[in-house]
Amino acid sequence: MPIYYISKVLNRVEGRYTPIEKMTLALVISARRLRPYFLSHPIGVKTNMPLKQTLEKPDTSVRLVKWTVELSEYNILYLPRTTIKAQALVDFILEMAGIPMEDTSNVER
């Protein structure tokens, strides 16, 4: 299963998006940059956010409606992210503290 890294610095307005909007923006940016791959292969998105449910009912934001239409042309599978007990605790603490999450998958146990 290939994994790609795409980077983008959020501008001041994008930095004020809700976490679900930031996640959707990341998916939209990835879809734009990797369009040939998104069109020719099913894409799996592992997340602990209710991304699929939000995109199915995007009545809260014009932005989300626009992004939902844009993402609807791709075969995207939204998969729940399985967590290790310690990772779930770290995710919870980071979420409550409002600290941006970094990649903790390479931390030795």
UniProtKB/TrEMBL annotation:
Coiled coil: none annotated. It comes from the Eukaryota. Residues 2-74 form the Reverse transcriptase RNase H-like domain. Keywords: Endonuclease, Hydrolase, Nuclease, Nucleotidyltransferase, RNA-directed DNA polymerase, Transferase. InterPro entries: DNA/RNA_pol_sf (IPR043502), RT_RNaseH (IPR041373). GO terms for molecular function: endonuclease activity; hydrolase activity; RNA-directed DNA polymerase activity. PANTHER family: RIBONUCLEASE H. This is Reverse transcriptase RNase H-like domain-containing protein. It comes from Sesamum radiatum (Black benniseed).
